Q: What sequence folds into this?
């Protein structure tokens, strides 16, 4: 007895698990069940997403997303009342326990499809965190709102460089330290206007060194006339310790030449060992970050593009051309990130994941960065170092001084050995 594997609707080859229908016809039915049940307004808004799902090369993946995905269920819930889907609606849903990942994934799907406009998600996450912190301290709400929305966020939005995880954490830490100081002052019946230097010194000595983050808040409060000028010294940081020169060289050669290492490891490791880049900066690189000019390839890390060794330029080009599978449509596509997230190509990997990857291969970021930046500071003046590697001029000057001290100590030790 012959079995008919033709689709009962279109005569194309059928998949037995879809009840006699081919994958495309099964997807069409699934899309109709999902989208046609939505109210008219969101249904029209989401038509572009529907078209993309039904025209994809992997209908099975699209059907699975519509039927089983938590983000698809969340979308239908959010528009059930007939309202359009917006970033603001997703921000509200994000506050519900256990929904953070589904909301973030749905947002990326909608942005990628063109349903929602793109936005700076790191800055947006700071806004959400600020709203939660302010909501948890109603007595301090007016002051915290003025500081957060009038000082911190405008500075984030005016940055020329794209925001990173580090920037978002930096902003949140400043708001939290302001809350901690104001809460302590309230417990001691001290208002911000009456806060003295002795009070600040006492509060700083009673807690962890992270309390020094409050410096930004107190500078703002003094400039805004809400407090007297108060001093919060910068936290003392021990001089960074680099790697042994031989270890640094061997690891760099391994990244540039050892094809047994994963390509992501080699590229990330070389960017740390050669240019002293933070993991947060590395994961935020776009796949088209290379610039090709006569005489070589360049990478923009700061204001001035830095020329790459041919081996590293080739690796970055190969990594940027790699395709990823879209978990919604199933298509093979290229992410805009050089280090895309494995589960969501719309986002890049976390700095923590890249750090762990490098640590597993013996590339510890802090000493590797220290060696790279001290080596660069020996060869470049601070202004050029800042422009090429994307570090602040003051930071570049500090590395220059540190490199000079290290070199002087080395010369003295060699002279002592000869004596």
A:
């Amino acid at each position: 007895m012959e079995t008919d594997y033709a689709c009962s609707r279109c005569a194309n080859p059928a998949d037995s698990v879809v009840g006699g229908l081919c994958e495309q016809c099964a997807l069409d039915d699934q899309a109709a069940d999902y989208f046609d049940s939505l109210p008219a307004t969101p249904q029209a808004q989401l038509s572009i997403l529907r078209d993309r799902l039904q025209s994809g090369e992997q209908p099975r993946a699209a059907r699975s997303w519509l039927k089983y995905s938590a983000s698809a269920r969340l979308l239908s819930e959010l528009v059930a009342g007939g309202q359009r889907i917006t970033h603001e609606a997703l921000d509200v849903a994000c506050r519900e326990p256990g929904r953070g990942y589904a909301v973030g994934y749905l947002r990326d799907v909608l942005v990628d499809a063109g349903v929602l406009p793109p936005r700076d998600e790191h800055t947006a996450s700071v806004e959400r965190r600020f709203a939660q912190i302010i909501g948890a301290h109603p007595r301090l709400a007016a002051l915290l709102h003025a500081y957060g929305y009038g000082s911190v966020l405008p500075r984030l939005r005016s940055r020329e460089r794209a925001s990173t995880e580090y920037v978002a954490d930096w902003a949140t830490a400043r708001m939290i330290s302001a809350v901690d100081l104001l809460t302590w002052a309230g417990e001691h019946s001290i208002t911000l206007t009456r806060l003295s230097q002795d009070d600040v010194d006492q509060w700083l000595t009673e807690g962890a060194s992270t309390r020094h983050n409050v410096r930004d808040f107190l500078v703002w409060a003094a400039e805004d006339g809400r407090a007297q000028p108060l001093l919060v010294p910068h936290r003392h940081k021990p001089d960074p310790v680099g790697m042994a020169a031989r270890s640094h060289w061997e690891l760099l050669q391994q990244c540039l030449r050892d094809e047994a290492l994963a390509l992501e490891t080699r590229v990330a490791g070389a960017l740390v060992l050669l240019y002293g880049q933070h993991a947060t900066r590395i994961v935020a690189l776009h796949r088209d970050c290379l610039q090709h000019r006569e005489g070589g390839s360049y990478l923009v890390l700061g204001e001035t593009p830095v020329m790459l060794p041919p081996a590293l330029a080739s690796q970055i080009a190969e990594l940027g051309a790699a395709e990823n599978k879209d978990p919604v449509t199933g298509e093979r596509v290229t992410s805009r990130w050089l280090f895309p997230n494995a589960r969501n190509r719309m986002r890049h990997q976390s700095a923590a994941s890249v750090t762990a990857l490098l640590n597993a291969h013996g590339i510890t970021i802090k000493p590797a960065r220290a060696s790279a930046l001290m080596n660069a500071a020996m060869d470049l003046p601070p202004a050029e170092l800042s422009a090429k590697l994307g570090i602040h001029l003051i930071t570049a000057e500090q590395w220059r001084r540190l490199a000079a001290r290290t070199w002087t100590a080395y010369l003295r030790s060699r002279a002592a050995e000869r004596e």
The chain has three domains: 23-113, 121-223, 245-418. The chain has a mean pLDDT of 88. Residues 121-223 form one domain. The radius of gyration is 27 Å.
